[in-house]
Amino acid sequence: MNAVFEKRLLVVWLGLSAITMVSLWIGSHQGRPSAVATSGAIGIALVKVRIIFREFMEVRHAPALLCRLADVWVVITGASLLGAYLVGMGLSAG
Amino acid sequence: MTNVADAPSSPDRVEVRAAAREASEPARVARFVPGQPDMWVFVFVEAFLFTAYFTVYVVCRTRSIDLYLQSQAHLSLGVGTFNTLALLASSWSMARCVQAAREGTYGAALRNSFLTMFFGSVFLVSKVTEWTTEIHEGNTFTTNEFFSFYYFLTALHFIHLLIGFVFLGVVVYQLWSPARRSQELVETGATYWHTIDFLWVIIFSLLYVMR
Fold it and tell me: Is pLDDT larger for residue B32 or for residue B139?
């Protein structure tokens, strides 16, 4: 296998695994609700998803439409989850 | 479904993919849709459907935050992390399988598809063990709202994983014989498998990590 791409895939996998350990660290501080921890957890997940799209699913080599569609889904999902959490917590507090 | 043997366009597709990979400025040289476009339609339909499920979960969670936090504490964050690492490893080996098939090193492609099956099986066994443990501790589908979401989301994902094994079986079947090899089909199977991976990444974040 081409050494350059093999190395790139290895770096991507190790990077994704390392980011997962950050999620583990965030999740290990259970207790009170935390907008910062939640935003961090969702943000990290979406960064990982975008990396999977671009590197493993090869969207970075895909036509612009597919690239944008993948990015739009990531943005909509992020906005939906963070919006639902922040608005919901705000309403609960009120 | 297009076989290399009977489709003159297939070698061109392989060359386009190789050119895109090797070009220093791929945007200007050659761009391609990995696998069959129909699979991408399916992927985005599924992805938006899961976005709706995730959003409903978060809305419900904010209405009973203490219940969700107490219930979440019964889950093992270590097991969730292990599951995530297993699926990431499976995606890595699947990406290597696609690349090896593209380069014509079908032995390596087959090895990587088996490796993907292995990592997928690790996730599968780990998930069943986790469910069994939770049920033995009295945390079932009807225990409370959090566990209803937990079983719903993880079971729905599990079904997708099982379908992923069917795709992997087709990929192995295609790679096994020179007469059947189809790069497009290998990429289509990989696209589905990576979808299972990225959906789990968000499920892990919502069920195990968020507060």
Answer: B139
